[in-house]
Each structure stands twice: as C-alpha cells, then as structure tokens.
Amino acid sequence: MNAVSLNIYSFLMKENIEFIRYCHKAYKSREKWIDIIKKWNNEIIIPDINYYYNTQKNTYAIYISKQINTDAFFRNASIHIYKPIDDKNEQTKLAEILKCSDKEISPLALISDEQKKCCIYTDNETFLGNDMLCFSPCSNTSSVILSTSDFFNVFLIKSKHSIKLI
Predict the structure, then answer these.
(1) What's the CA dihedral at 155, 142, 40, 157 to 10 degrees?
(2) Distance CA 53, CA 66 (A)
(3) Cα separation, 153 vs 139, whole angstroms
(4) What pTM was estimated for this model as a whole?
(5) Mean predicted confidence (pLDDT) in 100-109
C-alpha cells in the first residue's frame, strides 16, 4: 500500500464512511482492473471517469458517470470552458494537486486537493442511483467500494468538494 492509498483509507475510517476494501493482484491497465472486479462481483459499478482542465481558471473538472457519455458534460453551457486532458503536462499538474501518480489518479484522491482546484460533475442517473461504486485508491493492488449515496453525499462533502449535476 502506498502513502496516498493509506491516507484515503485513513480518511474513510476517520470520517466513519462505510466502504469495502478489496485487495487483489496488481493490474497493469484499467481493462485488467475491470476484469478483476467483475470476476469478484458483476453488480458493482466501475464508473466512467473523465478529467477536464480549465486553462482560464487553472482548475479541473472530474466527470463521473455510470455510462460513457461525455456529450452530457459538454452540452452544459456553464462548463464549456473545460477541455479534456490530453496533455501530459496537464495530467501531471492534476496528479501533483491530488498528490498521486499520474497513472493512478482517482476521485478518492480529492482528499489531497487542499486548494479545491477540482470539482465533481455527475448526471442525475448516476447521482440518484442505488449502486455500489468501485474506485481505485491510487493503488493497483486494492479497490474501494462505496455506495453511490456515501460517495456523493458523504465522501465529497467531508472532503469539502462540490458536486454539480448536469
């Protein structure tokens, strides 16, 4: 377990947030990770997570959805200033803010975003769902499973990050 994942687990326990920690073999890609989780429990949702950068304000948007649907994100006029992170430099800056490796960026690392440079966006279907969501705790040897409600209504609030519905 690395220092970032240890901080994430400590935060979850300190804030009394219910979660399941699932330890597994190291994975080398997102696809391998999904395979590992689906073999364990095919009812767990691994949300699609997209990261965006606002060059004007030097801030980031993290769009979390149960389905790959970036169109919903870009249809919202108030967030048209964001662009997908496609530059290694922008991804490295985000990793520095979240204090994790650029290969292991996760929404759970928001606990390290002290300057609140990141905001979470989601859609109604994801937000109102009654699912178990699986996230990487910035480690390729374990996963964190939280209820949708605990992630959006407890974890994000206790990490002092805002949620915007689109």
Answers:
(1) 0
(2) 21
(3) 24
(4) 0.88
(5) 91
